[in-house]
Amino acid sequence: MTPLEDAQAFVLESCPPLAPIEVDRTEALGVVLAEAIVAGEIVPPFDNTAVDGYAVRAADVAAGPAELVVVGEIAAGAAPTRHVGPGEAIRIMTGAPLPDGADAVVMVEDSERIGGDRVRLSRSVPVGASIRRAGDDVRVGDRLFEQGTVVTPAVAAVLASVNAARVTVWPRVRVAVLSTGDELVADGSPLAPGEIRESNKTMLAALLADTGCDVVDLGVVRDDAAQLERALRSAAADCDAIVSSGGVSMGDYDVVKAVLGSIADMTWMQIAIKPAKPFAFGRLDGVPVFGLPGNPVSSLVSFELLARPALRRMMGHTRLTRPSLVAVADAALDRHPDGKVHFMRVNGDFGDDGRYHVRPVGAQGSHQLAATALADAMAVVPDGPGVPAGADVAVLLLHGD
User: Fold this and answer.
1) Residues 6+ apart with CB under 8 A from 34
2) Order of strands, sheet of 32-33, starting from the edge strand that comes earlier in the sequence
3) For the segment 380-394, what is each residue's pLDDT rounded down to a tens digit?
4) Is 125 left (phi over 0), alpha (psi -120 to 50) or beta?
């Protein structure tokens, strides 16, 4: 059997990042920057107020409560039309430019209007109070984000604030996903003897979308070699990767295995893990092909351990796997020695001790997806008798990047 680490290294080496492209920043959310971003503008572009209040000269309120003449008002987005002189104040709204002559802002909570044109300010403030200086956040030439940064909503906002209209990124991987088999029913019609509902493709398409890929759903392809070959070749011409499930076990004679074996350069593996022992990987016309096992839990585990990291690498990510941590097994994770690492599905939460505590889900069979569906993580249980209750165990979370 192939050690998992060797299989992962083989797949990752075969899936380098795609060629970077330039896109409008509005199309960059969720993808990875392929070039550093250097600021071409300052943020904020002018001195402005951090609060609603009154722009004043700090010297006029230095002695404590003071009454000043209100000589104007500035809303956010408006330009000042006059300066603040001795004994004067200008009503100002959050984000509005600071008028000439003012060197501080008194919050509106510390004010009381007197008549139509005067204000009583109840506290003194130092020079610079409640003022956001020009360039206080970003200065021209600042290196804001390095290559490899994921464009989150906050990063996108910064790009907008410095007018970075176009950015160079690694594109999303366009992935074709398909299910094959005459036994699969996807239209909701009654099942005939021997038929089952299609579910793997549904799961894999959602996993691909969650990974950040653009998904091309090829539907269910019947057990017809010519039809499958046409579908696979079309996918290879149109997509960056192909994901299928089923037909990869030793001894299987399956249309998928027969067709891929004849038209693609495939490697068929038996990996030293449970579930997801069978796995296939190769290239069809230069396009990576991931052959996942047919049992639904095995397909899920195989995707998480092998396909997902490779697809993330193709999209320029540097963190390829899900977050991992050392947890406490609140219940025994029993197993028998078999030469394989077991990835047991568990549910977990953080206890009062600040540590992550896990418990196995009810059923661990590779066909029992209903029990796995709500699992939070996979416990990595090495070959041997298992992990006793109360012991530490490594876990791979099934959420987060």
Assistant:
1) 20, 147, 168, 169, 170, 316
2) 21-24, 166-170, 32-33
3) 999 999 999 999 999
4) beta
Q: What is the mean pLDDT of residues 196-221?
A: 93
User: Is 11 in contact with 129 (CB distance < 8 Å)?
Assistant: no
- Strand, helix or coil at 74? strand
Distance CA 370, CA 372 (A): 5
pLDDT in tens, 104-125: 999 999 999 998 899 999 999 9
Name the CA dihedral angle for 94, 95, 101, 105, rounded to a multiple of 10 degrees: 30
CA-nearest of 238, 258, 262, 257 to 247 is: 257
- Token look-up 């793997």 returns 200
Question: 186 pLDDT band (50/70/90 cuts)?
Answer: confident
CA atoms of 385 and 335, how far apart (whole Å): 5
∠ CA 250-252-256, nearest 5°, is 115
What is the DSSP code (8-state) at residue 96? P
Average pLDDT rounded to a whole number, residues 249-271: 84
- The answer to whether 180 and 291 are in contact (CB under 8 A) is no
Sequential DSSP letters for 76-95: TTPPP-S---TTEEEEE-TT
The mean predicted confidence, pLDDT, of the chain is 94
pLDDT at 15 over 80: yes
Whether the CB-CB separation of 247 and 199 falls below 8 Å is answered with no
The region of weakest confidence among 65-69, 76-80, 176-180, 255-259 is: 255-259
| pLDDT tens column, 302-329 | 999 999 999 999 999 999 999 999 999 9
* Integer Rg of the chain from CA: 31
- Token pair recorded at residue 232: 């696979």
394: left (phi over 0), alpha (psi -120 to 50) or beta: beta
How far is 298 from 345, CA to CA, in rounded Å?
11
Where in 158-264 does DSSP place strands (E)?
166-170, 174-180, 184-185, 196-197, 214-221, 241-245
345 three-class SS:
strand
